[in-house]
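Quick start: read one record
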Amino acid sequence: MSGIFLQLLASAPSTSVDVSYFVMAGGGGGGYLSSSTQGHGGGGGGGHQISSATLDKGTSYTVTVGAGGAGDTAGSDSTFNSLTSTGGGEGSRSRTTPGGDGGSGGGGSAGGAGAGVGGSGTVGQGNDGGDALSAGGEGGGGGGGGADTAGANASGSPPSGGNGGNGLDANSVTGTITKYGGGGGGGSSLATRGSGGTGGGGDGADSSTDAQDGTVNTGGGGGGDAADRDVEGSGGSGVVIIRTLATAASTTGSPTLTTDGSYNIYTYTGSGSITF
C-alpha cells in the first residue's frame, strides 16, 4: 500500500507555479514654471524591482501598472504580488525647490538668482537626480535620475542641461535586452539641452525645441522645460512583466503573451490580473 500511496502522491497535480517578474513604475514629469526660471530639471525614471515567487494556482493576482506623471508631477507606483515599485520623482519647478524624490529623483531647476538640487532615488530601485547650475545670469536644469545611473548635473557657462541617468534592462525576465527607466534631460534656455537617458527618458527643452515626453511603458522620465518654451515632458507609463513555464488559466487587462524557449512571458502595459 505504501508504494501505491507514494506513486499517487508523485502523480498528483501541482498546486503552485514558479514565476519571475519585473515591476517598473511610471516616470516623473519634467519641471516647468515660468520664464523666471531658465532651466528646469528632468523627471526621474520610475522605480524598478525584479523578483521571483511561488504563486498558488486558482488565485487571482492583481497587476497595477503606474501612469507617468504630467509636468511637475511624480509618476505612479506599479505593483504585483505585494511588490511595489515607486513612481519617479518630478523635475523641480523652482530654483528654490529640489527635484522630487521617487523611484529615481527628479532634477533640480535654475535661474539667474540660484539653483536647486536633484531629488533622491529609492535605494535598490533607482538613482538621484542631478543638480542645476546658475552661471552668468542663466541656468540649466539637472538631469533626472535613471534606473541604472544618476542624472548628470548641469554644467558650463551659460549652463547646459544635465543628461538623464540611464535605464537598465530586465533580460533575465524579458529574454531580450530592452532598457527601462531612463531619466529625463534637463532644460536650458541659452545652451544645449540635456538628453534623455537610455530607457525611455525624454530630452529637455532649449530655446527653440520643446521638451520630450518619456516613452510609454518604459517608466522613462519627461524632459525639463526651458524659459519661454512653456512645454514640459510627461513621464512614460510603467510596465509589469511575468515570466513562467506555466500557462495562465485566465487574465484580465489584455497582456501580451510571448515566448522565450519554454517560458511564457506576460507583458502588462495596463492594469489587470492573472490566474494560473
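The two ends are 33 Å apart (CA to CA).
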